[in-house]
UniProtKB/TrEMBL annotation:
Signal peptide: none annotated. The lineage of its organism: Eukaryota, Metazoa, Spiralia, Gnathifera, Rotifera. One of its GO terms (biological process) is fatty acid beta-oxidation. It comes from the Eukaryota. Its EC number is 4.2.1.17. InterPro entries: ClpP/crotonase-like_dom_sf, Enoyl-CoA_hyd/isom_CS, Enoyl-CoA_hydra/iso, Enoyl-CoA_hydra_C. This is Probable enoyl-CoA hydratase, mitochondrial. The keyword Lipid metabolism applies. Keywords: Fatty acid metabolism, Lipid metabolism, Lyase. One of its GO terms (cellular component) is mitochondrion. Belongs to the enoyl-CoA hydratase/isomerase family. Pfam families: ECH_1 (PF00378). GO terms for molecular function: enoyl-CoA hydratase activity.
Length: 293
């Protein structure tokens, strides 16, 4: 049995959990971390396999300052490297997912400072995660907040969510993928309208344009995101990773290149135990027992 499977069976037993010895308590603490100042992290889901990250600067509407972004990068990389984690959920508060990069922090920066320091170049951890990431967006997702939501694989929105790229209003433009990812998702005309006016769109409109996959009541949103994450984690982690790579390639390649890559990745699943197990389980009319191998 792998270490992660062993750990899952340990924590699923309440009786054993009550008699945890100090070393096991140490392992469990890893999943309920207060090691960060601007975000909260914990492990959720019935099988404790969902990495949960909550942006937590409520007084600043979760404005994304350098310290928060460094912490977010560390948390995403840690969950991504953890074999027991099959999906990550990223959320904010009911009022704000994130109201953008921290304007107070940027206010006095000079061109040479941001250029020489390559400001924003470290905002890539979410987009680089091999583990699927679901953004659960309640409230404002503006500027950098909309941009980090778009770095995630799936966006679910609460009914009162609002999305926008209002940088133009403060004399700048999107700098973490807003002009690129938004345009690929909603098309040139709507992206231009949003980027050139700074106007926000509602959750319903965001769903209409394909920016979000579903809209839920505010209070249910996080639970729905965790449920969706759990549905993903039922499958082979290895196959999920290949499927995610194939979908993401649609944004990077020509159609012919993407179709070729997809076919090769499909072929590659025939080198895995999980492809054999999945098909065998279907034929034998039973549930598959994936081993992520
Ligand atoms: C720093 C921010 C902030 C931000 C809100 N706050 N957004 N602080 N950076 N991006 C702070 C406010 O200063 C205030 O704190 C508190 O949060 C509440 O905000 P209010 O404005 O008082 O609330 P409200 O009237 O309800 O308006 C909410 C809002 C508005 C619509 C979200 O705050 C707003 O327009 N924020 C800026 C949105 C924006 O322009 N985002 C893009 C940023 S540029 P105090 O202490 O003052 O009361 C960007 C660049 C992207 O993201 C480039 C790549 C990342």
């Amino acid at each position: 049995m792998s270490l992660s499977l062993a750990f899952k069976s340990i924590i699923s037993s309440q009786a054993i959990r009550n008699s945890l010895n100090p070393s096991l308590i140490g392992i469990q603490r890893r999943f309920q971390s207060n090691e960060f100042k601007n975000i909260l992290t914990e492990v959720r889901g019935k099988d404790k396999n969902i990495g949960f990250i909550q942006l937590n600067r409520p007084k600043a509407f979760n404005a994304l300052n350098a310290e928060l972004m460094t912490e977010l990068e560390q948390a995403v990389k840690k969950f991504d490297a953890d074999p027991s984690i099959g999906c990550i959920v990223l959320t904010g508060s009911n009022r704000a997912f994130a109201a953008g990069a921290d304007i107070k922090e940027m206010q006095n920066k000079s061109f040479s400072e941001v250029c020489k320091g390559n400001f924003l170049s470290n905002w890539t951890a979410l987009a680089e995660s091999k583990t699927p990431v679901i953004a659960a967006v309640n409230g404002f997702a503006l500027g950098g907040g909309c941009e980090i939501a778009m770095m995630c694989d799936i966006i679910l929105a609460g009914e009162k969510a609002e999305f926008g790229q209002p940088e133009i209003v403060i004399g700048t433009i999107p700098g973490a993928g807003g002009t690129q990812r938004l345009t690929r998702v909603v098309g040139k005309s709507k992206a231009m309208e949003m980027v050139l006016t700074g106007d926000r769109i509602s959750a319903k409109e965001a769903q209409l344009y394909g920016l979000v996959s579903a809209v839920h009541p505010v209070d249910n949103l996080v639970d729905e995101a965790v449920k969706l994450a759990e549905r993903i984690t039922r499958h082979s982690k290895l196959t999920v990773q290949l499927a995610k790579e194939a979908v993401n390639s649609a944004y990077e390649t020509t159609l012919a290149q993407g179709i070729n890559l997809e076919r090769r990745l499909f072929h590659a699943t025939f080198a895995t135990n999980d492809r054999k197990e999945g098909m065998t389980a279907f034929v034998e009319k039973r549930k598959p027992n994936f081993t992520d191998s």
